[in-house]
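WARN no homologs supplied; continuing
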Amino acid sequence: MIKVIIERTIADGLELNYQAAIKTTLKAVLEAPGYISSESLTDIERSHHKLIVTNWTSVQAWDHWHSSTARKEATREISAMLDGGEKITVTEIR
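OK structure emitted
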């Protein structure tokens, strides 16, 4: 199993829009082969800073989802709300 940590900074005034858009992404990822679970976290000191921690069966499953048209479509709205890009860190449990 791997964990993928996605860091995002949401532009001022768009946090409510982000909460709605993240639901679209969640619906799409539920269908992705190899997806196990995820959680969405908000930095206590910087509410615009979001962390999404996803669990996958393998790096290959994550890579397939990450490069998929489904992910691009599901995150298109989110991408427009970001102050900067996403930072993605792929980790493994040892």
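The beta strands are 2-9, 35-42, 49-56, 87-92.
OK
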